[in-house]
Fold this sequence. Notes:
Layout: H1 2-36, E1 41-43, E2 48-51, H2 52-72, H3 77-93, E3 95-97, E4 102-104, H4 106-122, H5 126-133, H6 143-168, E5 175-177, H7 185-191, H8 193-213
Parallel strand pairs: 2-5
Antiparallel strand pairs: 1-2, 3-4
Helix pairs in contact: 1-8, 2-6, 2-7, 3-4, 3-6, 4-6, 4-7, 4-8, 6-7, 6-8
Amino acid sequence: MHKIRKTIIIVAALLFLAFFGFRSFDMFKDSILEIYNIRWKLSITREIHIDFYGGVIPTFFSLFIVFYLVSFREFSIRQYFSYFLLSAAFGLMVSGVSSTAIITFYKVLALLVSFLAVFLTFYDGGFVEFLKFRDFHRLDFTKRNYVNALLLAYTYACLSVLVVDLVYVPFAVSAYIGAMGLTDGIMLSGLFTPLSVTFVTLLVMFLYEMHASS
């Protein structure tokens, strides 16, 4: 019972810090980044451009992390791409088009892909297997799995937003993928994944302890 109370306190504190962090980052973005951000526009065609900071850098790091997970962490590339399709679907679900830009709710996306990443790494069989059997005894809470979840969620978030941008490109007169650099959804969705993965991990640990004590 003491462990359950401790977990509840940690989750409550994390929620408070998450809200405070989101608000602080929004203020920093609106007052500094959008004004002083240095843009480096790379032209793909006359109408289509990609921002170096907001598009190329997070995409490069995401692909490098995928290579690292597959080559050095023995992660299944087939399993990665099967769940990437689901994360891309999440990206399309939380995105839309305004009169001037593609809008992605990157905080929601980061949270959704974190659930995928946590169950892919902590649960033997992955997210779909957990939904099917709901066997909490197959959860394996280790530091290695937590690091894998952080890396996995980052790639899912960034690459999913990139896919969203590419899907909407044919329907736009002009497109600036990753525009605004550090204030764009590709970059921001990845930056928020460490917090969302930590929150989901604590939530799953809490549910695990509740199930174990019942």
